[in-house]
Specification:
Order of helices and strands: HEEEHHEHEHEEEHH
Number of domains: 1
Strand order of the largest sheet: 3-2-1-4-5-8-7-6
Shape: globular
Structural class: alpha+beta
CATH superfamily: archaeoglobus fulgidus dsm 4304 superfamily
Amino acid sequence: MNKDNIISKLINIQLDLSKKLNLVKLEKNIRDFKLIIGIDLTFIKEQNIDKGIVCFAILKNNIKNIKIEYKYLKEEVKFPYIPGFLAFREFPLIEKLFYNIKVLYTKELKNKEILFFIDGHGISHPRSLGIASHFGVKLNQISIGIAKRKLFGYYDQKEIQEQKITKLYKDKDKTKQLGYVLNTKLISNRKILGSYELFISPGNNIDCDSSLNLFLQMVKTYNLVITELAHKYLANLRKNILNIK
């Protein structure tokens, strides 16, 4: 199968999955979740083999005694890097680690008491199926994307500078909202995940406003961004694996 045929097949898979999106208002606040999990990945070459490492930063949601645990998985990755189709490279690792922890949190997963924040896009994607949406649809979980750079859509640059927050739309005609763009100065005096702008978009089983509200509640309640913790853990792990000083 040539590259064009492969891309066409991947597009059709994304379009089919996007039809299963459930973008609904979520009547929950951050403390209603038993666990908050941040997911990030990194990729390395080890003994000339491409490998991916996925990390789950798991916040056990007890306001009196915040506890964060980390789980990770390293495996060979065979799917190439193709912009717009990163989920096909990343999801198999995420899925495997998800099922590894499922035995520990079966009840919480069944009752939708776990909130997943994923480093990447949700519906703010050309086919409404970034990694957060891909994950949310395939595993039927509540998921939110937190991305560092715009992949797709339109937002008002002036508004983000003046008001520190603005809506992200599919196009300049504002025909469909895809999420929010947040200037990190609204919540911090520093870059977050190496960026002064974050793109918050629903993955699945949640809508745009609920995604933003839960993100802001997480920051206010716990003074952290859970995907940033996963990112930092991976950065240290990567250094140790590659013996970087």
